Amino acid sequence: MTAATIDPASVLWSAPERERAGRPLLVLMHGYGSHEGDLFGLSPQLPLGPVVASVRAPTPEGGGFAWFPYGGQADAATRLAIADDAAAAVLNWLDAQEYTSVGLLGFSQGGAMALQLLRQAPERFSYAANLSGFALEGEHAGDDTLLRTRPPVFWGRGTADTMISDALISITDAWLPSHSTLTERIYEDLAHSISQPELADVSAFIRERLA
Q1: How far apart are CA 44 and CA 36, in angstroms?
Q2: How far is CA 76 from the centre of its chain?
Q3: What distances in angstroms separate CA 17 from CA 5, 21, 161, 197, one per listed residue?
Q4: pTM
Q5: Is-contact 16 52, C-beta < 8 A?
Q6: What topology is assigned to 8-210 in CATH?
């Protein structure tokens, strides 16, 4: 398997390079088959303090891009290996950036990646927001550290979301409370999407982390 990389030219930024140093960074990660422009459209409604960087997943998929295969496309071990490789690509990209702190916000597969990055490098991130996402199965190098440090994590999901399986919700529900300081929100009748109330809640969560 060829190591995944993040294309710096594909990253969408909320501020020009000259205005990024000395500020917090918020990394956005889109869902399966989508692209970096998807979540970036939400950036005007997010807190103004952090510089926002919306990152494109490494693998072309379905007219867009993916972080790792769907369950039916590969076995669990292969999915996990590809997700870890994608997380390593994001960490390598972050090595070239300047920031005072870094937070993560992902939707669906991007939410899974936010948690995966915490599990790969728990000391590098101030918080993570997982919107309509999930935790991948298995054990990871940073899990023991997360049990001790319990970083702030926002988990939002809708009662009408049929895209994320009950099994993945159960895995996430079992893992997150003990490995994070969890803010959980469940939105009545919300499908696999982000509502204005959820956006307001996650924005308030980020502001609290920056205060």
Answers
A1: 15
A2: 20
A3: 21, 8, 38, 32
A4: 0.96
A5: no
A6: Rossmann fold (3.40.50)
Q: Which amino acid is at 2?
A: T
Over residues 42-99, the pLDDT tens digits come to: 999 999 999 999 999 999 998 999 999 986 677 888 889 999 999 999 999 999 999 9
Q: Residue 7: which residues within 8 A CB-CB, separation 6 or more? A: 56
Q: Could you give the CA distance from residue 40 to residue 55 in angstroms, rounded to a whole number? A: 9
Contacts of 54 (CB under 8 A, 6+ apart): 11, 12, 13, 27, 28, 29, 30, 36, 37, 38, 39, 40, 43
Q: What is the 3-state secondary structure (H, E, C) of the chain?
A: CCCCCCCHHHCEECCCHHHCCCCCEEEEECCCCECHHHHHCCHHHCCCCCEEEEECCCEEECCEEECCCCHHHCCHHHHHHHHHHHHHHHHHHHCCCCCCCEEEEEECHHHHHHHHHHHHCHHHCCEEEEECCCCCCCCCCCHHHHHHHCCEEEEEEECCCCCCCHHHHHHHHHHHHHHCEEEEEEECCCCCCCCHHHHHHHHHHHHHHHC
Give per-residue pLDDT as tens, 160-195. Answer: 999 999 999 999 999 999 999 999 999 999 999 999
Q: Where are the domains of the chain?
A: 8-210
Helix 76-94 / helix 109-120 crossing angle, nearest 10 deg: 70
Find, among 192, 83, 80, the residue nearest to 131 by Cα: 192
Q: How far apart are CA 22 and CA 99, in angstroms?
A: 6
